[in-house]
Every structure is written in structure tokens, then in C-alpha cells.
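Re: duplicated header lines in exported C-alpha cells

Our pipeline writes sequence and C-alpha cells for each protein into one text file. With two proteins the header for the second block appears twice in some exports. Here is an export where it did not happen, for reference. First protein block:
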Amino acid sequence: MLPIKGIIIKNKIDADEEEYEYAEFLNEKINLSSSVFVDKKDTIWSLNGYEFAKKHGMNEVYINALVFFKDFPDRLVGGTKEQYETALINYGKAVASVAKEYETHGIHTVVDMFNEFVDYNAPFSERTNNWMSKLSVEDLCKIAVAVKEEMPNADLGYNDWNFENPEKRKMIFEVIRKIQGYEKENGCRILDHIGTQCHTSINDIEGLRQSIEELQQFGLPIDITELDISKGLDGVDYETATPEELAAIRKYEQKLQNDVMKMISKTFYKLRQTKDLLL
């Protein structure tokens, strides 16, 4: 079974009877794994994130490993190669220490080790700004290995958004293959899942379905780490539409929004059924 984890949504799917079993499958996953995103500067952090998680019935938290980068840039600039390698290892130990603290309080921790490695806009190349001007894919692989050495059961992932765009998806897949290539060359396991931030719209249903299906090639669980479905139909002139037309458009937008949710539940349900049959 390829699990869905960390779907952020408050309302259950409003599905008709025909779609009920698929909707129930997705709702079951939503109810079983609420999540909280932890930022080092966030109030949640200073008030002990695990206490916040427990208070709100959350059994899993997501940590973006890159929030620690501000503590390390000076050590990653200049100096000897040995000093640089030591800094990478210490970086991994720092991430693992936070994850361990959550685990000791009964909160499972997922670490976004590789986060948004591809540019937001075309030509969708690997990003080289901010922390990515200092840390390469290989560097983060070394940090990930250090995390695993400290915490073998750490759940590490690659997380990105706009998988619906085939050009961006192609580049994301290249980065994932680099990570898996490092694993093969060094005899280690780094990636435990792939996270897709579904910042999607009612116009992207086919692209979203295709992206989920294509992600199967990596043989890893897929996490829907964020989910929002914006309205607004392509090619519709909202300014000149009459009140009656707008009412009809809004009704159709709601239908398409529900269709996207049903598609997500159907796709994962079918993947689960296929996996069960293979077993």
C-alpha cells in the first residue's frame, strides 16, 4: 500500500453514493494523519511543538530540514574540505536531535530533507538561490545520511509543488533520480517518500492525476503534504458575466472542486487495490 500522509483539509468530501467507497478511503487517511508544519521561528516551536501536536490530536509533524540552515552558513563558506564535511554531519545531527525529541513524546516525525529544489517558474531548472547556492543535492544526501545514522527510523522525503506541470515534473524527477543514484553508489537509503504539495486548481485535474500516476515509477510512498484547490475557470470572462451566469459558473466551479477531490481519492484507492493484488 502506498500511504497518503499529512493531508491538510478540514472538511470531509461531499460525495454521492457512487463515489462513497473512494471518499471514505481518503477521509480515513485524512482522519488518521493530521499534521503540523514546524518552523523554527514559529510560536509552535517556542511553545514545544509536541505539546501543540498532542493538544490538537496530531500524531505526526513535518519538519523542513532547511530551517536549520541559518545556523550553518558561516561554517559552509570557506575553510577546509574537512571542516565543510564536519559541518554537514553536524547539520544532520541537529535535524535528528529535534526529530528524536518529538519521537520521545510519541509524535512521529517526517523530515522534508529535500524541499522545493526546482524553480517555481520556467525553465524549471534546479534552484541556485539562497541555501541552494551553498548546498547541492549531494550535500543534502550527506546530511541525510548523518540523520539516518543518528535516527535510523527517520522518515525523509523530497517535497515539491506544481507536479501538474509536465516540464517542472520532468526536472523534479531528475533531482529524485540523482538522490536515488547517490543511494545506489553509496549503499544507503535516504528517501522514504515523495511529497507533493497540491496547490492546484479546478483546471488541473488531468495534470494532477497524471503526476500521481507517474510518481509510482520511484517505488516510494506518496504524501500529499498540502492541499488547496483554487477556483476560477480558464477562458471565462467573469467581468462581463451576468448575475445569472455567475451563479451558474460558481455552481460548476464547486462541482469541479469536488471532482478533483474525488479524483484524488479514486486514484489512491485504485493504487492501493493494485498493490494488494500484486501481493
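Second protein block, exported in the same file:
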Amino acid sequence: MRYIEPHAHMVSGTTDDYAAMATAGCQAVCEPAFWAGFDRSSARGFYDYFCQLTEHEPRRAARYGLPHYTWLCINPKESEDVRLAEEVLAIIPEFLDRPNVLGIGEIGLNKNTRNEMAVLEKHVDLAAKHNRLILVHTPHLEDKLKGTRLILDLLKSDSRIQPERVIIDHVEEHTISMVLDAGFWAGITLYPESKSTPARAIDMVEACSMERVWLNSACDWGHSDPLAVPKTAREMRRRGHSLEAIDRLIFQNPLRFLSQCPAFAIAGSALDSAAPQTR
């Protein structure tokens, strides 16, 4: 089985996680910038973090044969401090041409505040000016529906933004259809206790669509599983989905989206090449 892990916070993981993912068939890992588990006090902290994502982490992944890619931003949780956000946004352009940078993310909303919206708009403007892909974080639990609507409205109001170049992550049963209907990609995040379990994720795919959808583990500091994607693929197989359908969802779909960035390239990555055959 082959798969791409399109959203994993590997700075919070161990080398054993990389080894396990490679053994399970991972072909590449993509790491969005996110909250460090605490609020950083200066833009210099983000500068060092971006160096970690573009220099150190790719070397660590390479030891296990995994290409490592990243996204850059100040995450929504720290966007309430608009002055800090502006300082961080000012340093992002010097990193955008580094060879493993895919685009701007994971941007979005945390509590749907006015300041978060202002910083989200600045991120979208930065992505549009540099013609970069966008990865969007949607809020948790009770804030998710309102936040998703706010995000969609903002993105649709900017004529420079092409929906097919934006992935809106952490969708759930009550938000996936509105994201797909608006022409955006939808990411389903697999957590053991929150966001979506493997069973719920497959229910969503079966009820809505496999088109413009990817699965990710978003493994981070909390209770999460870096092998959530292949474990969900196993559940799909148990339900009777073909190997071709599984390959499309966990490998070809993220490949199709990520390949819109010229920096993204993995060995044998031509769409539909060597796809598993039904047995």
C-alpha cells in the first residue's frame, strides 16, 4: 500500500514515527506550520521555526527515505496578536523559494474573532501575490460551522483565489458538503478521540464524494496517530472498497492537489501509475 501523509506535524514526533510511516508505505510527508504547544513571544521564534521546517526536518525525514514538504504561516491560535502576526508575515517571503515549501498554511480560524479574520485575510493576500497553494484550518467543535462559512466567504470574495488550489482541512459531516460544493478541496483529519475516526471518515466519503478529498493524521502534541491514514485504508478494505479506490483516496488525490506546486515531486508519482489492482 502506498500513501501520502499530507498533513502531519512531525516536529512533535519521534524518529520512530518516521520509520513506522515509511514501513507502512508512506511516500512523502507534508508539514504545515502550527502551534508549538505554547504561544511564541516574538517573530524571531517563528524565524527559527521556519528554519527547522525547511532545513532540519527534511534531513531527519530523509534518513528514512521520506521526502518532507512544508507550509508556512502564523497559525490561527497565535493570530489574535495582530502586531506579532504582521511581523511574522513579513519574514515568510524569504522562505517561500526554499525547495520544500508548498504554500501558505495552515491558516484559518480558531475562535472566529475579528483579529483572526484580519490575519487570515493577510495570509490569503500573501498567497495570492506569490501564487501559492493554501491550506486552511477550520475551528473546533461548536465554532466549526460558523468558522467554515466565514472562511468560505472570505476566499470566494477574492477573485485571485482559485478554489482548486485551496484545501480546507478538518471538515466534518456538517461542513464537508459546503466545502466541496464551493469547488474547494476537503481534508478529513483522523484523530482517535476528536475530529474524525476512521469509521466516520469513510462514512463521509461514502455519503459525499471521493473527488477532491484527502485523509490526514495531523499528528501533533496531542493524542494522535501518525499511522491513521493506512489504518483507515485497512478499514476501507474491510468494508469492501477496492484497492484502486483506496489508492485514489490516500495517494492519487493528495498527489493531484500537491502537484499543483512545482516543488512537489516524488519518485514514481505519475497519476495512476502502478496503481494496485483489485484482488
